[in-house]
Amino acid sequence: MLGSGFIGRFYADSIQGYRSQDKVVSIYSRREESARKFAEDYAVPFWTTTMEEAIARPEVDIVCISLPNNLHEEAVMLCCKHKKAVMTTKPLGRNAAEAKRMLEAVEAAGIFNGYLEDLVYTPKFIKAEQSVRNGALGRILWAKSRETHPGPHSDWFWDLEQAGGGCILDLGCHCVEITRSYIGKDIKPVEVMCWADTQVKPIEAEDHAIGLVKYENGAIGQFEVSWTFRGGLDLRDEVMGSEGTIWINSFLRTGFDMFTTGKGGDYVAEKAESNTGWLFPVGDELNELGYNHMFMDMFNALEKGEAPKETFYDGYVVNAVLDAAYRSAKSKLWEPVNLEVWRGREGVGKDSHLIEWDADHYLVKEEMTHYGAKKLILKHKVSGAFIQKVLE
Ligand SMILES: NC(=O)c1ccc[n+]([C@@H]2O[C@H](COP(=O)([O-])OP(=O)(O)OC[C@H]3O[C@@H](n4cnc5c(N)ncnc54)[C@H](O)[C@@H]3O)[C@@H](O)[C@H]2O)c1
């Protein structure tokens, strides 16, 4: 494990908690006291303040990168040097150029690579995605994902150089991979329109943004991200298809409401802003945030010698989409997604979606009225005229 902070601890809780056969055997942290404390808390036999030493240990099967964004590349290159399987937290890079270098390096080294995008492994997402893939929603037209909270928990996130961006990069990376997964990861994201601003915080980066990602098949992805949202961690997805709809609330309203006058523990849930009054705790954060299913997939894939569901390639695509978002926020125009590496389908147009009613008409819609009549709206194929039929 590289990094002993916020996500390193969530990951360790999940890695050691779920299958119990997986163990953190070596921990690197910048400061000795943090490395030592992590080693004590998680019964890790080896700790060090030298990154390469932690990676090179013979008992290490896979390296988990839980470091600030500006250190991902250095850590990945060391894994390549020592031919160690690697999994990296999000975002893969601070931009697509960094992500591409990492992708090319792991592939040249021939090492297992996993992209730790936990939010496509949440129980709700897994079920929703299955329904989408089974066709329950028909053709996916629009997929929106929203992640907003009152801002990150460590100094480096707020520094543009170390973080590489503001909430677009930090939170938008989740939203882009979620919406891309609903739309189909083989469908090419082609252009992005994005509004971003720094509305509240004294920072160079954006603290609030909304973006639209256009896909080659006509589907649209939408992300809403903020570091200035008040009220906790808001994680929601909405998917609209030609045959159905999904709404998911993953965190702030999960059907668990609690009231307290404030006596007792301080921790309610990630980024919760209050510990008194009506609260919205999360039953099992590790599971609800997808960490358990994510590490199951990573380790199962590693053991079988297969690629996991999320690889560095996915991290690279996400970075390329977000680079276009940053360009659009500046230019105020739709900006193309520059994908120098693309492994999905090419030239996918809008699928034919017209429903034939009879030889002459397409069906526009049907509706059962409150007065018991079934109405059909039809369009004549040649004249284009709309007519209605009432079936008693
Ligand atoms: N849901 C998620 O997937 C999720 C959530 C939070 C963070 N993250 C990602 O995890 C990574 C780490 O974030 P975090 O929240 O754990 O941050 P953190 O600040 O809590 O922890 C970062 C760790 O890196 C160490 N570190 C900081 N600066 C360093 C430096 N210059 N040299 C060496 N080590 C240094 C810290 O000591 C700490 O151990 C980031 O890439 C972030 O985007 C992912």
Automatic annotation (TrEMBL):
Oxidoreductase in keyword set: yes
User: What organism does the UniProt record list as the source?
Assistant: Cnuella takakiae
Q: Which molecular function GO terms apply here?
A: nucleotide binding; oxidoreductase activity
Per the record, the similarity remark reads:
Belongs to the Gfo/Idh/MocA family.
Which keywords does UniProt give here?
Answer: Oxidoreductase
Asked whether the UniProt record includes Oxidoreductase among its keywords, one would answer: yes
Question: Which part of the chain is the GFO/IDH/MocA-like oxidoreductase domain?
Answer: 126-246
Q: Give an example GO biological process.
A: NADPH regeneration
Q: Name one GO cellular component term.
A: cytoplasm
Which Pfam families does the entry mention? GFO_IDH_MocA (PF01408), GFO_IDH_MocA_C3 (PF22725)
The Gfo/Idh/MocA-like oxidoreductase N-terminal domain sits at 1-110
Its recorded name reads Predicted dehydrogenase
